[in-house]
Design brief:
five-stranded antiparallel sheet, PRAM protein, alpha+beta, FYB1/2-like, 20% helix, 87 residues, SH3 type barrels, hSH3
Amino acid sequence: ITLKARKKEEKMDREFQKKFKFEGSINVLTRMMVDPAAIEKRGGAKNLPLRRGEILDVIQFTNEEQILCRNSQRKYGYVPQAVMLPL
């Protein structure tokens, strides 16, 4: 990874921590896949867009209904737990 890319990642991580009031280091707990049968959604304020079959990094199991995830574009947001499948 180039220095410029690393700085951009760090900036995105800081913005995420501020927006979600997330404290401490960002650790990937596991990776999960969006159900290929799920209905695709655009995403919103704090929700990630749902793309069928996409592999997401799980940052936090927030509650029984949603999981805080990061996608391949390094965007963070909530995803409904009901559409997530273990790899």
